[in-house]
Amino acid sequence: MKKSIYLLALAIGAQTAYAQETISPAGPQDKPVYLTNAVIHVGNGQVIENGTIAFAKGKITAVGASVPAAGDATVLDMKGQHVYPGIIAPETKLGLVEFESVRATIDAREVGEINPSIRSIISYNTDSKVINTLRSNGILLAQVTPEGGLISGTSSVVQLDAWNWEDAAYKTDNGVHFYMPRLVNIGSGRGFRGPQSKDPVKEGMEQIEKVRMFFREAKAYQQENKHTATNLRYEAMRKLFNREQKLFIHCELVREMLLAIDFAKEFNVDVVIVGGADSWQIADLLKQNNIAVVLTQPHSLPLMQDDDIDQPYKTAAQLQKAGVLYCLSNEGFWQQRNLGFEAGTASTFGLSREEALSAVTLNAAKILGIDKITGTLETGKDANIAVSAGDMLDMKSSIITRAYIQGREINLDNKQHQLYEKYQKKYNIK
């Protein structure tokens, strides 16, 4: 019996080893690198034609039209290729889910309705096959987000080239996530959560009031000089009330976003709306209350039947015009690889090309609280860089030729590339 179990374990191990791509995290940057003769898209709206970007020890040291190489550096002629900040994917289950149909590979949620102490970062799987498919499209950072219940836990930002979650951690526990109950029956499509109810408004308001009471109790707990017992759930709210974390409220409708604004006012917390399908209707109010928006699923049908058919495509431009801080996300995990192309769609519906780029780089960095170290190609920031032979926001011309995370050149191969090459060879396709 023991021998049979041993042989079975060896067989499973052999299959697992055979299935792994030969991709390992890159080592530290060992000497300065200069990317010359490139079109540099800084990420803040500025474009430098025929420019040079230099970075050393993981940090950008110079960006400009005339940056001379110095010392023992690696100089690479980009020959007119485009250099961008790495795309940032907010609101994703990347590394928490591998196969949506296999329960054993899903680690994105915990039992219970209110779990602010749950940390998504410790479940992040750096060996996920999906990660490499994002990197090859220029996506280099992601916000790993829990789901389930009302308050699902805290999200963290990771860089996508690491041995384990400790290496991957870029900004840990940057926000608490509140999944607001839907206040209308809209079927099972976008934004639907939970079973249908005969009175969704009444049921939803009861759940929201439950969360509000928890916030009040947690705030009262913080104000106590001495506790008779430690409450882990209340302790987990401390950074939120100190404004060291943000409250990400997942909601779509105007009535839900108005409640989100009430939460920001009552508890003096920094609120970000995730979803925001109807945010264009109250853009001025969001701007007035300094509420940021993570627009999810921009390639989708409108939420309501009487909305314009192209409303999801043009919402970003409407928020841009109103001065609301926003970014784009595709939710899910594997879908995030198309995030740059969805920014390209937004540029067709009212945004300029550089505004669309900022929507997936600088704006995302601001919302996630990492804009001081990434999001643009500026001196002193991390060298998170993607190089494309064409327009990175255009599906037809985007070909990522090089990518760097904190100055380390990463391997752009992935399982899909390998399968393509395998069957190209098998059927003698040239």
UniProtKB/TrEMBL annotation:
It comes from the Bacteria. Pfam families: Amidohydro_3. Keywords: Hydrolase, Signal. Residues 1-19 form the signal peptide. Residues 351-398 form the Amidohydrolase domain. GO terms for molecular function: hydrolase activity, acting on carbon-nitrogen (but not peptide) bonds. Gene3D superfamilies: Metal-dependent hydrolases. PANTHER family: ALPHA-D-RIBOSE 1-METHYLPHOSPHONATE 5-TRIPHOSPHATE DIPHOSPHATASE (PTHR43135). This is Amidohydrolase. It comes from Chitinophaga flava.
